[in-house]
């Protein structure tokens, strides 16, 4: 016959083990989900490919023609001093984006 303290101990231990197992399963599911999205277009899901633009390697979608930049790449592209419409657009976008993030 087991005592009340012994039952409580095992119930608590089982609860902790179940919580640990659940956390591990959630982490594994999250990791698997992230692997399925690696290098996939966030808009349409097509496989992205790399291309070089002004010395920066960017990601481009062959289906929806979207262009995706990693952190800091927009600032690098915008800092290229070219007198072009594209340069002005990048600079305006960079300014608008930095103003939005500065308010948070």
Give a quick summary of the entry.
This protein has 104 residues and is mainly α.
Would you mind describing this structure in some detail?
The protein has helices spanning 4-37, 73-79, 85-102, and strands spanning 49-53, 56-60, 67-68. It has a domain at 69-104. The chain has 104 residues and is mainly alpha-helical. The protein is elongated. The chain contains 3 helices and 3 strands. Strands 1-2-3 form a 3-stranded antiparallel beta sheet.
* Low-confidence runs of at least 5 consecutive residues: none
Distance between the termini: 61 Å
What share of the residues lie within helices? 55-70%
Strand content is 5-15%
Q: Which structural class should the secondary elements be placed in? A: mainly alpha
Average per-residue pLDDT, rounded, comes to: 81
Largest sheet: 3 strands, antiparallel
Q: What are the secondary-structure elements, in order, as H or E?
A: HEEEHH
Major sheet strand order: 1-2-3
Number of strands: 3
**Count of runs of 4 or more consecutive helical residues:** 3
Give the CA-based shape. Answer: elongated
Rg is 25 Å
């Amino acid at each position: 016959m087991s005592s009340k303290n012994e039952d409580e101990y095992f119930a608590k231990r089982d609860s902790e083990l179940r919580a640990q197992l659940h956390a591990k399963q959630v982490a594994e599911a999250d990791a698997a989900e992230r692997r399925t999205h690696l290098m996939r277009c966030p808009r349409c899901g097509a496989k992205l490919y790399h291309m070089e633009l002004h010395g920066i390697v960017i990601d481009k979608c062959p289906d929806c023609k979207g262009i995706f930049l990693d952190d800091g790449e927009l600032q690098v592209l915008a800092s290229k001093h070219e007198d072009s419409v594209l340069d002005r657009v990048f600079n305006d976008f960079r300014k608008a984006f930095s103003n939005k993030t500065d308010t948070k």
